[in-house]
Design brief:
heterodimer; A: alpha+beta; B: alpha/beta; 10-stranded mixed sheet; 7-stranded parallel sheet; about 30% helix; globular
């Protein structure tokens, strides 16, 4: 059978990234039009491998999507256990020091009743999910609907025609290069795939998205800022799990990231959720605008696990999986949009441009008051999928249609209402910022600095001694890449590391990179172990000299999350 | 112009086995936790086929047998190089062992040649040497046997000279270039660099490709499913726990201290087979015929113990007193109740008192023309141990050209009868003539057990012989014991235990529906007898008629690597792998460390290397440690920059202490080591050498 070139390299609707947003987009599109030609590209070896989240999910969007696309989805094997863990015990603890904790759940509930912003953290009616498992389920559903999913293909760049101001496809990452970048006998040049409509769903800090933002001239009112989330799944004894409970979520503020007055001050908090099968998920989310040159979020998680409230349950447990990812926290003002020249407040500014739509974490639809983005990722995906089908004949109108849907939908309402929360905290600190945020929407827009600019030579004091065991962590993320390929990480100007970073920040990347990618070799700082990379991209956002660049490695590499 | 058929298999991805993959209570693998992938060596086979196709154009057809889900590996193959795909799927084909897998595959290959190649028999069958879940390496050789075509095993490279293929393959201690005489033939690929990547274009095409589905009815195999199988798994259990300490050392001093002190503690058991036997046939048992303490599992032994006591209380002492009505009466005397069915079977089981098999215990010798290989003596040690309680003789078959002079050593090593088959066509090992010679001798003498070494030679010869004789074969055994399985009416049968799934589980297997029980045994596991040159034995010469047409392929040249690494007898082996990056590093780091250890511990130290390091030319093939090189059992094995491919791990697992240094924290070797350090060997090794100097 002949392989016809054209049939196989052109697609009507191309989705970049098989995460919850991208799959939601594909599923919505396919259920709106059973004949639509839809393909999803994923750099991971399998769907779900690169997906990590807390996660407590507002399930409404997801259920609406699936009820529409596969009315029988509840009968799919595993669907029950993936979505069935409803939150029953929901508490917020303020940790004041390593031993002390104040349960402030009641305060949050009062806030919620009063309609105050940080009451939105409450989780009644939500479900505890593993996003990795949920994504696999969505992948299975997508395949059953006839959507094509291709794993193991990294996308290198978007192909954008500057003359016609239009994207016409993507170029894939080359495969089979050796370390020096020379073709091996099995070399395949990255192929060009053309598409009528492109949906960018790469997740946090998407490379193709940022490539498109530059090429198409999109703008953000505020720069995007990030948090770094570290998560571990810990298997504990049955007795301890029973005492923790099967439907419980704990969110914490304070220790170890923030303590009043003279303590450290990093935005963020910790969490512990029930996962079933005697497993508890624990994690720390730390604002990437930390000031401490020696800070490492994994060490913070280690400290967190030593706090009485958490230690009680996880002490003596076995870590069975671990991972890291970044969360885009810039909110409403950091969503990349196209501003037509001569536009005023009334002009619609599209999230994407013409036939390209940006969804989920790539757009930055995380609501910082709820500390949730998953429901918006799914919702924005569904909207983009519907917009794509509506605009199949007029692809250049897709971003307009999508943005119109977003603006009249809960996604943008939420994003608007939370628009100042993170910036106020960044500006005023948590003690004043959090209460002040009640009035957030009455205040003007605050700008935030890019995360890399905030580094100082101040030192963070960790409670647990010693260095974090990164090799074990990497093994628990089951991350690997083909060794004989060019490094996907590069340091732009080595002299900055040697002459400035060394003395000022003790080469911070070596400390904060969760996978131990960076090492000092001779006098240089080098990405010595790129194959350990867990694809969190913290390095390119937190290098204090903005001196690191992350590119997409050969497909199939990266972590293999199963339970995250 | 020739066509290509690549057999591919879907296997669980054992590289992703983490703590979560095992059931914490039972220690067994949880079903469905591991993703399914194509067997790594089958991916290599596809790349190998693609290279052949470029040398001599033709179609590539990929073929797999399994449940419908296994069509995923066909999509994998199509998205890389295959032009056509056939899925053999049928419930009746399930539960098959190797001959019952090879047979339907061979019938499917015949049908592919007929339907897809339009009756053209100019094809090559290319298979991965073995699958990671079974590790048997039996199926490809048995496919060749069913098709009556030659098998070229352990291929690593192919080229074309004057329009004819030349294939490089691994042989014990070196490489060999061979040239197949005629099409068709089977090639098994032991390793091929540069597995193919999927292209998007091909992937999309593959996604829509209509794979051909065949059922058993379409191909009409003669041996299939559980009923066609010649072996049966009787027990699966986790490997002995705590075998390796898995201690992660963080500093050099600690590492060196652990290494030296554990070494000095010494070996726990001797290197030679002891005198005592651990089986007695029922008629000789001191407790009489009703004593059943040689069952396969402790659980069965205990159950029998209770029932035997109960029978004694009931005054039942003779076989002819046994009948159905005893079941309820026995039940009353039991502390733990047994099911009625089980009791019936057990009582029925007392009636069998004769051994299930008869004949001698045989070993197929392996030699280099001058002397026999170590594995032959190891097998003779085991054979003596098995034959003694059965009251049978130990026979050994040695085939070759001018090999008589080795007979006395074989007798000294434990053989009672040495069967010698000499022919000029047997001078070099080629599976065709060797198979004919050995099959001939077996047919004449009807042994009950035949043992082979799990070497490049034994692993291709044994499956062909077993298939031809219609007998079961278990590959790579690490333990062989005579036991009863009274409930099934089996007395004094060979229980063959082997690791599976990359050593993550152990399985005990017995032969069924066969006249002979055959097994290949891992190198270095079985213990030799202490050589006794005063032993007497018979030497029996066989004449055999061999034809040039049995040869299959011409040997162009054999490159046995020079030097004489005495790896199998070393106290310490220091090995380097690809992680050392170049020959200079290998030479310096490995030799320096070996020299210091030799001095410090006053022992015999040898240099070893992984297959990858040998391929890179760091050192010659005689130093290769692993399943395809030399299996070692030193007191201390040091792996530098070796990631731990499964073939390597198999070859070192009998080492008393294993220590490893590797920069990849995920390196599988760490799970199989006692002490390890994560880091760059180039930095760490000189520090260790220095620390040991003092």
């Amino acid at each position: 059978m002949e392989i016809k070139e054209k049939d196989n390299t052109h697609i009507s609707i191309l989705v970049v990234g098989a995460g919850p947003a991208g799959l939601a987009a594909a599923i919505a599109a396919r259920s709106a039009n059973k004949d639509a030609d839809i393909a999803v590209l994923e750099k991971g070896e399998a769907v779900g491998n690169h997906n990590l989240s807390g996660a407590v999910l507002e399930t409404a969007s997801l259920k609406r999507l699936l009820d529409e696309a596969r009315p029988d989805w509840r009968t799919i094997k595993g669907a029950d256990s993936i979505l069935g863990r409803e939150v029953k015990d929901d508490e917020v603890q303020l940790l004041l020091g390593k031993e002390l904790a104040v349960n402030i759940s009641f305060l949050m509930k009062i806030c919620k009743k009063l309609g105050l912003s940080f009451g939105e953290i409450c989780n009644d009616g939500n479900s505890i999910v593993s996003i990795s498992k949920l994504t696999r389920l969505l992948g299975e559903i997508a395949l059953s609907l006839g959507i094509e999913i291709y794993t193991g293909f990294g996308v290198k760049e978007i192909l954008y025609d500057q003359d016609n101001r239009k994207a016409h496809g993507v170029k894939l990452v080359d495969q089979g290069l050796d370390k020096e970048g020379n073709p091996q006998p099995n070399y395949i040049e990255g192929e060009t795939i053309t598409a009528d409509i492109i949906i960018l769903a790469e997740g946090t800090d998407g490379l193709v998205t940022e490539d498109f933002v530059v090429k198409a001239g999109l703008n953000r009112k505020n720069d995007q800022v990030f948090s770094v989330g570290v998560k571990e799944i810990i298997r504990v004894s049955q007795q301890k799990y029973e005492s923790f409970g099967d439907n419980r979520v704990i969110h914490t503020m304070g220790f170890p990231l923030w303590l009043p007055i003279f303590g450290p001050a990093i935005f963020g908090g910790g969490f512990a959720y029930s996962c079933g099968e005697n497993e508890i998920a624990v994690g720390i989310i730390a604002g990437a605008d930390w000031k401490y040159y020696n800070f490492n979020p994994q060490k913070a998680l280690e400290d967190f696990k030593q706090h009485t409230v958490i230690r009680e349950y996880v002490d003596g447990g076995e870590i069975i999986e671990a991972g890291v990812k970044m969360i885009p926290e810039g909110g409403y003002y950091a969503v990349p949009r196209y501003l037509p020249s001569g536009s005023d407040e009334k002009t619609m500014k599209t999230v994407g441009y013409k036939n390209v739509m940006i969804i989920g974490d790539s757009a930055g639809f995380v609501n910082m008051k709820k500390i949730k983005g998953l429901h918006n990722a799914i919702e924005s995906g569904a909207l983009a999928g519907n917009a794509a089908i509506k605009c199949l004949e007029t692809p250049e109108k897709a971003a307009d249609e999508y943005t119109r849907k977003l603006e009249s939908n809960s996604v943008m309402d939420e994003m608007k209402s939370a628009r100042n929360f993170r910036a106020i905290v960044a500006r005023f600190g948590q003690a004043i910022g959090v209460p002040l945020s009640i009035a957030g929407n009455l205040l003007p827009r605050f700008t935030m600095e890019k995360d890399y600019k905030t580094m100082t030579s101040r030192k963070f004091t960790f409670y647990t001694p010693g260095e974090f065991d990164k090799p074990t962590f990497v093994a628990l993320a089951v991350t690997e890449h083909r060794e004989e390929q060019p490094s996907h990480l590069s340091i732009l100007d080595p002299s900055l590391c040697i002459n400035q970073c060394d003395s000022l920040f003790n080469r911070a990347c070596i400390t904060f990179c969760p996978a131990g990618v960076y090492e000092k070799i001779g006098i240089d700082t080098r990405p010595a172990n790129p194959s350990n990379c867990v694809h969190c991209k913290t390095c390119q956002r937190k290098c204090p000299f903005d001196n690191i660049r992350w590119t997409v490695p050969e497909g199939n590499g990266g972590p293999k999350y199963k339970l995250m | 112009m020739s066509n290509y058929i690549v057999t591919v298999k879907q296997v669980p991805d054992i590289t992703q086995i983490t703590g979560n993959a095992f059931n914490p209570e039972t220690g067994t693998l949880k079903r469905g936790t591991l993703p399914s992938v194509i067997n790594k060596l089958d991916a290599d086979a596809l790349a190998f086929a693609n290279k052949m196709k470029h040398l001599s154009p033709g179609k590539i057809v990929c073929l797999t047998m399994g449940p419908p889900k296994s069509s995923e590996v066909l999509t994998y193959s199509l998205s890389r190089c295959a032009d056509h795909a056939v899925l053999l799927t049928d419930r009746v084909l399930g539960g098959a062992d190797t001959p019952a897998t090879a047979n339907p595959l061979a019938y499917a290959i015949r049908k592919i040649a007929k339907d897809i190649f339009n009756g053209n028999d100019d094809y090559v069958v290319i298979s991965g040497m073995q699958s990671v879940d079974g590790d048997t390496a039996q199926v490809p050789a048995q496919i060749a046997e069913e098709l009556q075509i030659p098998c070229i095993a352990y291929a690593t490279e192919v080229e074309s000279i004057n329009g004819k293929f030349r294939i490089e393959k691994i042989v014990s201690g070196g490489n060999q270039w061979v040239s197949p005489k005629a099409l068709p033939y089977v090639v098994t690929v032991a390793n091929y660099e540069y597995p193919l990547f999927a292209s998007f274009r091909r992937s999309r095409w593959a996604n829509k490709f209509a794979v051909i589905n065949w059922t058993a009815d379409d191909i009409k195999p003669t041996l299939f499913g559980y009923d066609g199988s010649k072996t049966r798994v009787t027990r699966v259990f986790p490997p002995p726990k705590g075998a390796r300490k898995n201690k992660h050392c963080h500093n050099i001093d600690e590492f060196v201290k652990e290494l030296v002190s554990t070494y000095k503690k010494g070996r726990s058991s001797g290197a030679f087979e002891g005198e005592e036997t651990d089986y007695i046939v029922p008629s000789d048992r001191p407790g009489g015929l009703f004593q059943r303490n040689y069952e396969g599992t402790d659980k069965e032994i205990n159950a029998y113990k209770q029932v035997t006591q109960a029978l004694s209380k009931l005054g039942i002492t003779k076989v002819d007193q046994l009948n159905e009505s005893l079941v309820e009466r026995v039940q009353e005397h039991l502390q733990e109740k047994l099911t009625k069915k089980m009791l019936q079977e057990m009582i029925e089981g007392y009636k069998t008192t004769q051994t299930s098999y008869s004949g001698d215990v045989w070993v197929i010798a392996e030699h280099d023309g001058k002397k026999t290989n170590d594995v032959t003596c190891e097998l003779l040690g085991k054979a003596t141990h098995l034959a003694k309680p059965l009251g049978v003789r130990v026979g050994v078959v040695i085939a070759g050209y001018q090999c008589k002079h080795m007979a006395n050593d074989l007798i000294a090593a434990g053989a009672d009868d040495v069967h010698i088959i000499e022919d000029v066509l047997l001078e070099d090992f080629r599976p065709g003539p060797y198979r004919n010679a050995v099959v001939d001798a077996i047919k004449k003498h009807n042994p009950q057990i035949v043992l082979f070494g799990a070497t490049p030679q034994g692993r291709v010869l044994a499956p062909m012989i077993a298939y031809r004789l219609g007998c079961g074969l278990t590959a790579d055994c690490t333990s062989l014991d005579i036991r009863d399985n009274s409930r099934q009416g089996n007395i004094a049968i060979l229980m063959q235990t082997r690791p599976a799934l990359g050593g993550n589980i152990m399985a005990t297997i017995i032969t069924k529906d066969s006249k002979i029980q055959m097994a290949t045994a891992r190198l270095g596991v079985m213990k030799k007898n202490r050589p006794d040159h005063s032993r007497k034995g018979n030497i029996i010469e066989h004449s055999v008629t061999l034809a040039e047409s049995d040869v299959g392929f011409d040997i162009i040249k054999t490159e046995l690597s020079g030097g004489s690494a005495n790896l199998s007898n070393a106290d310490v082996v220091v090995s380097g792998g690809r992680g050392l990056r170049n020959k200079d590093n290998y030479d310096k780091l490995v030799s320096d460390l070996a020299a210091v250890i030799r001095k410090k511990l006053d022992c015999q130290v040898e240099l070893g290397a992984s297959r990858a390091a040998v391929e890179q030319g760091f050192i010659n093939r005689t130093h290769q440690v692993g399943q395809t090189g030399t299996a070692v059992s030193p007191r201390l094995y040091i792996a530098l920059g070796i990631s731990g491919a499964i073939q390597h791990l198999i070859g070192i697992e009998n080492s008393e202490i294993i220590v490893a240094i590797n920069s990849d924290p995920l390196a599988p070797i760490f799970k199989h080591s006692d002490y390890y350090m994560v880091g760059n060997a180039e930095e760490i090794v000189p520090q260790i050498t220095e620390a040991l100097r003092h």
